[in-house]
Write a structure and sequence with these properties.
4 helices, rod-shaped
Amino acid sequence: MSDELELDQQESMPVPPTSGELLELVDELIIAVEGARTVPLSGNVMLDRDRLLDMLYRLRDELPEEMRAARWMVRERESFVARTNEKAREMLERARERSEELISESYIVKEAVDEANALVRRAEGESTRIRLEAEDYSEQAFEQTESVLSDLLGQVRRFRAELHQARREGD
């Protein structure tokens, strides 16, 4: 019983056309176009529109399921490639932006280091100037002190000489 059911189901299922049948239909289309009358003074031809459309519909309807699946797969593949290319472009754009940020930050760091080095050089120059002024001031102060002490020493010697002179005269 089940064998009979399976045979009935197989008989009711449409039989896919063979590639030979499809080629015959394509050949009919070619013969129809080649045998068509030409329109005077042009390369165009006149065809029976209904007959040509009927042949094209039959051709489309009899295309094997594998070709439809293949066409669907091709569209899916193209869609996948397009999505992947878009993602790749986005990643490249983000990488380019990040790289520019890093370059910019690096430039900022370099500017900061250059500014810091300039500040250190100015500070060192200022400290040298202050040290030299302090040494000059100290030198002048010591010189004045030496002069005062020298005058005092001269006065002390003079007073002592006067004192010694007065003692000798008193003796």
